[in-house]
Amino acid sequence: MGIVKSLTGQTAYYGISSMLGRLLNYLLVPLWTRLIVPPDNLAIVHVLYAWAALLNVLLTYGMETAFFRFSTDPSCDRKKVGDTAFTALFTTTTAAMVLGLLFFRQIAGAIDYGAQARCLFYFVLIVAFDTYAVIPFARLRLENRALRYAVIKLAGIALTAAMNLLLICVLPYYGVMRIDVESVFLGNAVGSALVLVLLGKDLWGFSIRIDRALLRRMLSYGWPILIGGTAYVVNEVMDRVFLRELLPQDTAEYTLGVYGACFKLAIFITLFVQAFRLAVEPFFFSHAKDRDARQTYAAVTLYFTIAVAAMYIGVMANLSWLQLIIGEQYRSGIDIVPIVLFANVFLGLYYNLSMWYKLTDRTRWGAYISILGAVVTVSVIFYGVPRYGYMAAAWSHLLTYGTMMLVSYGFGQYFYPIPYRVGRIVMYLLLAWGGGYLAWYVCGGNPWIGNAILLVFCALVYLLERKDFRKTMA
């Protein structure tokens, strides 16, 4: 069980790169929401990055997880697996990029952003550059080279932030150019390009070759992940696209700008969940054959729950001043934050509870569960948004991830039973929700009272878990 300590270390590395990097990038939010006004002008960022998430899934078509699966298979040549995965993605991504650059103006017109077509040009480059980096980054994770992974990620995000400051703040101040949302995309494209440059050594480590028999096996393994990933994107980000279509035309762009900015205040749990996911997937595959693997997975899930529960209370306790990060015109949507935060808690638990279908090669079940989640998302949004506005979109995240979490737990216990401490997990989730509710709604967001509630929660966790935690980490 001491290998949980190894996972904690890996999560810390990925967490440092994700959290520091994203927080550096997050410092741009006050800049955007104060200089790019009114909120209508920022709507294109939320819409195109929703499409970016979908394109990322389509262009990687499950190959990243297939790379992990077959690279850890003793019967497969790891070098051949890496070359096949990289060559496949390089070929399809290059074709997609060429088409996108040839027809970016037509695409912009088709989605009613013809006047901002240059944003689409940079957007195509961002998506392509990020996809080229998928397999090199996956190999760094597989080889536990988390420090190199972190340094490259941080460098790319730092340059993105610097470019945004230069293009949105410095140059307009000296009259060289005007403030424009196009600068957001140009800055991100430069940052993504730098990542590829820094990955040069890793990129050259792949050969352009495809083992056709192996590729067929990898595609067979990966296609359910593609379907499930597509459904996941619907659950995660396509609410921005749906809001734009379902809200009244005269207010849709403004409302979308407000919703997207407030949604970013859930970043603190989002970052931890992302860092954990990056560490836990190769970790679970690497230790699947261990004698006490299932007990380890159960312990990981319990401690993950404790961590995100404490983070939820912590954010709710300090939300009254955290909301000052975004511009005043954007703060009217602050009530979505408690809902979206807890939705991310459920999402993190779903990542824990969904590894069973990857470990047992039943990836089609991941597709089924994600499709079910997409049905919930679409149903709630299309019913609720015309009646309740963007609050319905926020609730769709909570209901969707809650459903996926429960369904995955049920089927996982049938196909791959794990002795989760369900009572403790449920207790900590209820305490987190109750503590956050008291801090924000009952106590009016008073940070002194809210942080006192957080300390009480942490003290309770210490009393209940200290013996088991020491034993597990030993």
Account of the protein in words:
By secondary structure, this protein is an all-alpha fold. The chain has 23 helices and no strands. It has helices spanning 3-26, 28-35, 43-60, 63-71, 78-102, 104-110, 117-132, 134-142, 146-173, 182-198, 200-204, 212-236, 239-246, 252-263, 267-286, 293-317, 319-322, 337-353, 355-359, 363-388, 390-415, 422-442, 447-473. Helix 13 packs parallel to helix 20 and helix 16 runs antiparallel to helix 18. The mean pLDDT is 84.
Number of strands: 0
Quaternary: single chain
Structural class: mainly alpha
Tally of individual helices: 23
Mean pLDDT, all residues: 84
Q: Would you identify the regions where 5 or more consecutive residues have pLDDT less than 50? A: none
Transmembrane segments: 12-32, 44-63, 84-108, 120-138, 150-173, 185-206, 218-234, 254-276, 297-321, 333-353, 365-386, 398-416, 425-442, 448-464
Membrane topology: Multi-pass membrane protein
Keywords: Cell membrane, Membrane, Transmembrane, Transmembrane helix
Organism: Candidatus Merdimorpha stercoravium
